[in-house]
Design a protein that fits this description.
It is a single chain. Helix 12 links the parallel strand 11 and strand 12. The longest helix is centred in the N-terminal third of the chain and has 197 residues. By secondary structure, this protein is an alpha/beta fold. The protein starts with 18 loop residues before the first strand and ends with a helix. The chain has a domain of 134 residues. GO terms for molecular function: ATP binding; ATP hydrolysis activity; DNA binding.
């Protein structure tokens, strides 16, 4: 066991003895062993395993362990006696294993081969270890047996009787019977639907035939219509070609007129262009004159405007000169006043400067004295600051050292806590996972090898199926062809016998039941036609007991040639025929009725068989009178004539048809047998292929599961290895960190003590220096007050001197600025005076008299040029008028050309349309495969397109009136008929199968009833024997609650010593337990199970009853191996081996095994020692 409930670690329990006891305190997991056996044997009810779901069997974890991912239990059986039947009986050891993962996958194995749950249950059917196991008695099962209803008790009897396998067979048979009946119903429904389909298909086939007839007529009329339309199109094309030639002649005449107008137009254009150039030249001269006139007018306008501008400038310059003159006068007055003020300010500045220098001389001595005092005070202060800094440094060091020591202690405690919290890897689990991984890899390799080997078989199986299917199709085709041929031949043969005018006459005279002659004879193969040629209508002759009957036929003569013969004729052979050297034709005939032999020998007297015409002709002269030769083809040659045979009606060839019918029936029978054999062979091959594919799919699924399992194992191993590595690394890191912390803590404690001593010394020194500094600072303060008063005086004198000097500099600056402004104003006056003089000179130079004279000359020239330009333009306009007239005539001609071209194009399009129609109708006739000559002969002289269109429309309407037409109805009808025949055969096969299955169920019920009756009697007898042993007397028996043992329940009637007979429900608790144990052991006695598991069965028993119970178990252990759980000392003493279950680790069970004999021997040795 591994991961099953509390057995989380791989646990092996070796059950070597016949009596093995399991002991341990309450809650240690003893009953989990019983649950494990139930589970691995296929138990699927969680309630039977004391859980709510199947996943409850997987170890759910504890406070110290994580939940397991899978549960695995394996039982190993010793099969050296070969008690296991079936395919697994060949193994001396059988290992049954079940694995369940939290993902929900439950897998079963037998000898490491993956199997189904049902395969495991099949092994233990009828052994008391099945789903209704009475050999595994868990906690409370005794109570359930006691409280069980009669129907539930019967299940234990069935398990003991071993009828569970019969029940399984009956259930499978019922399932197959249900499926067969379902198939029969489906086939019946299909046949019913097929009958309806056949009726519809017959109607559809007739409709399709009518459709084909109408379609053929419609196609013929359509071809005639196309031929007529082609002829009409050819005629129209010829007429349009003539019209195109006529219209093209008119177009050529219009084109010639067009060319003439264009030549005249080109000549006139040249003249017009020359006149246009003259106009352009005159116009250019006029433009030149106008340009010169414009230039002179611009010059005159410029002179006038310049004169006005200069006059305005002279007025402006005069005003500016007056303004600048006034400013110069103002600036000179202000400068004179400033010079007077400057003298006064110089005297005030000298007085303030002398006072400042006098007071400033007193300051250096006082400042030097104060600086010396301040330097001394600063030195004292610096020394105090140094002391304070040393104190601050020492305090900071002391604080840092304390913090470091606290942090060191905190970190040390944290590291110790981390060390305790590190997850310790489970190395045993790692070793187990590695071993399981190796096993999984081996299993995966085996699965892949098995899958590849199975896949290699698939092409062979598929090829076998294809080959069988091909042969089956060929056989089916041969059967269908033979059936059709047989049906046709038999219909002809029956028609030959049962139709015609003679049939009514024969029935009238009571002769219809008389067989015709040909049915009682057989002729050698190849001579059938010859026999019919010789006998003619006599081949249908009927035998009468006496020819006297034929007298009555004279009153009612047969309507056709009819022959009768006397069936009581004697067998006489003519000697003359026997002496002839030729082979008698009658010798080739075999008779099924010897009474007709003399009749045929008489009719065939003188008829000799011969193989070839040449031989017959060469030997005909040797024939006696009345004799003849007969050839296989039916030709007759006598001495004087040759008669050639030819079949005249269906009645001919009756012998050959009959022989062909016989041959076809034999061949058809062989093919049917071959068909049945091939169908079975195909089904078998197909079934084997499906089984192989299913097996491959199953193996592939197992391979995927195994791959996933291997992947999960690898991930678990990697996680555990990583966890182990991290555990080692973290442990080493923590140990190293702890050592470093201890060393660091010792150093810091020494440093902290030194800093505390130094702080005390610095505090004393700081107090002394602070007192000295306070006394000295009072002296410095007095000197600073004296210096402050003197500085204030010096500062006031300095401000007065600076103010006087500032006012002096400001006045000097203003005087300099006034001098510059005067100079600038004088320059402006000079510049304005110069501009004024220059403007007066320019105004005198402006004169436009010459320009006015030149302008008048140019105006006269322009007038002359305008008159010449007007004459040139008039000549040009005249030429333009002529040009327009000529262009209009050309345009008129051109306009006539386009309609003519359009007219020709229109006629050409009509001609092209007619040509296309001819080609289209030619193509249609070609595609339809029409015979042009035949159509021309069929076409009437006065044929009209509308007549054919009307006829085609009528045919199309009639075709449309047919509605939807199934053109494949005939083929579908044939296929449906064949399918109906096949389904009728299936219907009969399914009916036979149902009868067989019902008979099998009745046979199973008979066997089950007999087996249960015998078992009931034997168990009753065993119960009567065991009950007194357990109770020390008394009586008990089983009784049925009904008449039918297959459905009846079972009750237990018990009578302990000294009590009246009562049901088990009226007994005490201990008596109930003993009665149930007696019943279980009675079942064991009838059908001993290989082993038995008992879970605290002896709990309600006292010591006396426990001793009797122990004695019985010891006695039965000779046939059955017992593994029992008990807290009773007496029960423990009977064990050969004790298995102890402990739970030292909370929630985890472990095993301790003790061999009682070995322990006793060891005790004896100790006592002797």
């Amino acid at each position: 066991m591994s991961g099953f409930k509390s057995f989380v670690d791989p646990t092996t329990i070796r059950v070597n003895g016949k009596l093995v006891g399991v002991v341990g305190p309450n809650g240690c997991g003893k009953s989990n062993i019983i649950d494990a056996v139930r589970w691995v044997l296929g138990e699927s009810r969680a309630s039977e395993l004391r859980g709510e779901s199947m996943h409850d069997v997987i170890f759910n974890g504890t406070t110290q362990r994580k939940p397991a991912g899978r549960a695995s239990v394996e039982l190993i059986f010793d099969n050296t006696d070969g008690r296991i039947a079936g395919q697994w009986g060949q193994y001396g050891e059988l290992a049954v294993k079940r694995v369940l993962t939290r993902e929900g996958g439950s897998t079963y194995f037998i000898n490491n081969v993956a199997v189904r749950r049902r395969d495991i249950q099949d092994i233990f059917l009828g052994t008391g270890l099945g789903p209704r196991a009475y050999a595994i008695i868990g906690q409370g099962m005794i109570a359930r047996i006691i409280e069980a209803r009669p129907e539930e008790l019967r299940t234990f009897l069935e398990e003991a009787a071993g009828v569970s396998k019969y029940r399984e067979r009956r259930r499978e048979t019922e399932n197959r019977l249900f499926d067969t009946r379902e198939n029969l119903n489906r086939v019946s429904d299909i046949l019913h639907e097929l009958d309806q389909s056949l009726e519809k298909l017959k109607v559809q086939a007739d409709l399709a035939e009518r459709y084909h007839q109408l379609k053929e007529t419609q196609e013929r009329q359509q071809k005639l219509l196309w031929f007529l339309q082609k002829k009409n199109a050819l005629k129209e094309q010829s007429e349009l070609a003539f019209e195109i030639g006529k219209e093209q002649t008119v177009l050529e005449m219009l084109s010639a007129d067009m060319f003439k107008h264009e030549a005249e137009l080109e000549k006139l254009r040249q003249i017009h262009d020359f006149a246009n150039e003259s106009v352009h030249k005159a116009q250019g001269d006029l433009y030149q004159t106008n340009s010169e006139i414009g230039s002179l007018e611009a010059q005159i306008r410029y002179v006038i405007e310049s004169r006005k501008r200069l006059q305005a400038q002279i007025v402006s310059y005069t005003e500016q000169k007056d303004q600048w003159t006034k400013q110069i006068s103002s600036f000179v007055d202000e400068a004179n006043e400033g010079k007077d003020n400057l003298v006064e300010l110089s005297q005030q500045k000298e007085i303030a400067h002398e006072l400042f220098l006098q007071q400033q001389e007193e300051m250096p001595g006082l400042e030097n004295e104060l600086d010396i005092l301040r330097e001394q005070a600063q030195e004292m202060h610096d020394h105090i600051v140094q002391i304070r800094q040393q104190i601050a440094v020492a305090s900071t060091n002391h604080k840092n050292l304390s913090t470091n020591l606290f942090d060191c202690q905190s970190r040390r405690e944290k590291l110790l806590s981390q060390k305790e919290q590190i997850d310790v890897p489970d190395m045993e689990e790692l070793a187990f996972l590695k071993q399981e991984k190796a096993e999984a890899e081996q299993q995966l390799e085996e699965l892949r090898f098995t899958e590849e080997s199975q896949r290699d078989l698939v092409p062979e199986f598929e090829e076998s199926c294809i080959e069988i299917e091909k042969r089956l199709k060929e056989c089916n085709a041969a059967c269908i062809q033979e059936e059709a041929r047989l049906l046709a031949l038999k219909q002809i043969q029956e028609k030959t016998q049962g139709t015609g005018k003679a049939q009514g006459w024969l029935e009238k005279h009571g002769l219809s039941d008389f067989h015709p002659l040909w049915q009682d004879i057989q002729i050698e193969t190849g001579w059938e036609t010859a026999l019919e040629s010789v006998l003619m209508e006599r081949i249908f002759a009927r035998g009468l007991s006496s020819l006297d009957w034929t007298e009555s036929f004279l009153k009612d003569k047969p309507p056709v040639k009819t022959c009768f013969f006397a069936s009581d004729s004697e067998n006489r052979m003519r000697k003359e025929e026997a002496s002839q050297p030729y082979e008698s034709f009658s010798s080739r005939i075999q008779y099924q009725n010897d009474r007709i032999r003399p009749v045929l020998e008489n009719w065939l007297y003188g008829v000799y068989a011969i193989d070839s015409m040449n031989e017959a002709l060469s030997r005909r002269k040797t024939l006696p009178d009345g004799a003849c030769f007969i050839l296989p083809d039916g030709h007759i040659i006598d001495r004087y004539s040759v008669r050639f045979f030819a079949a005249e009606s269906e009645s001919e060839g009756v012998f050959s048809r009959q022989q062909e019918i016989t041959r076809l029936e034999e061949s058809h029978q062989k093919h049917k047998l071959e068909q049945s054999r091939l169908i079975e062979e195909f089904r078998g091959a197909e079934s084997r292929l499906k089984e192989l594919n299913s097996k491959i799919q199953h193996i592939h699924s197992e391979t995927n599961v195994q791959v996933q399992r291997l992947h999960d194992l690898q991930m678990k191993i990697l996680k555990l290895e990583e966890l182990n590595r991290r555990f080692k690394d973290q442990s080493e890191q923590i140990d190293t960190a702890l050592a470093e912390l201890d060393e660091f803590r010792q150093e810091k404690e020494l440093e902290l003590a030194g800093e505390e001593k130094r702080l005390e010394e610095l505090d004393m020194t700081l107090g002394e220096w602070q007192q000295k500094e306070a006394d000295f600072l009072e002296t410095v303060a007095g000197k600073e007050d004296e210096l402050k008063v003197l500085r204030e005086k010096v500062h006031q004198a300095e401000r007065s001197a600076q103010q006087a000097e500032y006012d002096e500099r400001a006045l000097v600056k203003r005087l300099d600025e006034l001098a510059r402004q005067i100079e600038t104003a004088e320059k402006q006056v000079q510049m304005v005076s110069g501009s004024l003089n220059q403007g007066q000179l320019e105004l005198q130079d402006l004169d436009d008299k010459v320009a006015q004279e030149n302008l008048q000359v140019l105006l006269d020239r322009r007038m002359t040029q305008e008159e010449a330009l007007a004459q040139s333009r008039q000549h040009l306009d005249d030429l333009a008028g002529q040009l327009r007239t000529l262009m209009e005539r050309r345009l008129q001609t051109e306009r006539s050309l386009q309609p003519q071209r359009d007219k020709i194009v229109a006629v050409q399009l009509k001609e092209q349309a007619a040509r296309i129609n001819v080609e289209q109708f030619d193509q249609k006739l070609l595609e339809a495969g029409a015979d042009i000559v035949a159509l021309n002969n069929m076409l009437p002289d006065n044929a009209r397109v509308s007549t054919f269109q009307t006829e085609i429309g009528r045919l199309n309407a009639e075709i449309d009136g047919l509605g939807p037409v199934n053109l494949g109805a005939a083929i579908e009808l044939n296929e449906a008929s064949n399918r109906k025949k096949y389904l009728e055969e299936q219907f009969q096969d399914l009916t036979d199968a149902i009868a067989t299955l019902e008979d099998a169920i009745r046979r199973i019920d008979r066997e089950t009833r007999s087996l249960l009756k015998n078992t009931f009697d034997e168990v009753n007898q065993s119960l009567n024997e065991l009950f007194p042993v357990l109770f020390g007397g008394g009586h008990a028996q089983l009784s049925m609650t009904g008449e039918e043992i297959l459905d009846a329940g079972i009750q237990i009637m018990a009578q302990p010593p000294g009590k009246k007979n009562a049901t088990i429900h009226l007994l005490s608790g201990g008596e109930k337990a003993l009665t149930a144990i007696a019943l279980v052991f009675s079942l064991f006695k009838l059908n001993p199970a290989p082993f038995c598991l008992l879970d605290e069965v002896d709990a309600p028993l006292d010591d006396a009853n426990t001793e009797r119970f122990s004695n019985m178990v010891t006695k039965m252990s000779s046939q059955t191996q017992f593994l029992y759980i008990s807290h009773n000392r007496i029960a423990m003493e009977m064990a050969e081996e004790l298995v102890g279950v402990t739970m030292q680790e909370q929630g985890v069970s472990r095993i301790v095994t003790v061999d009682i004999n070995d322990a006793a021997n060891f005790s004896d040795e100790v006592l002797r020692a």
